[in-house]
Amino acid sequence: MASETSLDNLRQEIDRIDDELHDLLMRRGRIAEQIGAVKDNGSQVVLRPGREAEILRRMIARHQGRFPKTTLIRIWRELIGGMVGLQGPVSVAVYMPERGTGYLELARDHYGAYTPMTALRSPGQVVRAVAEGSATVGVMPMPDREDIEPWWISLMGDSADMPRIISRLPFAGPGAGRGDGIEALAIGRLSPEATGYDRSWLAMETTPDISRARLRSVLGAAGLEPTLLAATQRSEDNWLHLVEISGAITADDRRITRLVERKQPVIHAVLLGGYPVPFSPEDLIE
After folding, report:
1. In three state form, how does the secondary structure of the chain look?
2. For the residues 197-210, what does the mean pLDDT come to?
């Protein structure tokens, strides 16, 4: 009888905690609505990937106990998705060439299970949806040297409304049976925010005779640290390269200008955006 009483008391305590959590969620929702009203959503984007990443890093840093960090992040990603939806409409265009390729699962895990999503069969369709404003975010395949359709080239324009890379998915690693182990990049019409844990993406047009080793050397000489030479494509008489750079850089960064001022081998350079670095497996060890 004593053990049953103790168990009942523990269950009642859980019920009280659930009520407190629910009260806090409703309070957080009211504040999110106030933020949306202050922003005037007719002219401002509600997403802030940098801010979201900082929230999750703070939660992981203060987390204690056996409750899995990956589950904590999953809960908070759903919470963030719901709260962002209170500030203004958000929709996601997802590259999905065929059913079951995993990109839709990545998108739902990051932006919320009930956020409106549209599956599109080509990266070009996703870029157009974001550029035209019919989607807030586009989920794209990771660039590869063997890409038949190098979608990142279409982001090299100078328009202020040009989509930019804003996130890398999954932020906390794939869940069991989700995403098929793939990674993706998210694009949107907003400028990345520096968080202190960032990567930037730079597209460059170069002369065709440059090797990957020399390209790394040229970037290093300009003060840019390449972390990944992601893709290379022929462009008429020259070559286009997509490079991931350590840190957060802006379009007017003097180091980008320095690359082009030398004329050879870099002819043109464009910042395609950036993202907060996802958690590593070590970050999520219990």
Report:
1. CHHHHHHHHHHHHHHHHHHHHHHHHHHHHHHHHHHHHHHCCCCCCCCCHHHHHHHHHHHHHHCCCCCCHHHHHHHHHHHHHHHHHHHCCCCEEEECCCCCCCHHHHHHHHHCCCCCEEEECCHHHHHHHHHHCCCCEEEEECCCCCCCCCHHHHHCCCCCCCCEEEEEECCCCCCCCCHHHCCEEEEECCCCCCCCCEEEEEEEEECCCCCHHHHHHHHHHCCCCEEEEEEEEEECCEEEEEEEEECCCCCCCHHHHHHHHCCCCEEEEEEEEEEECCCCHHHHCC
2. 93
Tell me where in the chain the CATH 3.40.190.10 domain(s) lie.
89-190
92 pLDDT above the threshold of 70: yes
The structural architecture, per CATH, of the domain 89-190 is: 3-Layer(aba) Sandwich (3.40)
pLDDT bucket at 144, cuts 50 / 70 / 90: confident
Whole-angstrom Cα distance, residue 175 to residue 146?
A: 27
Q: Which CATH architecture has domain 198-276?
A: 2-Layer Sandwich (3.30)
The length of the chain is 286
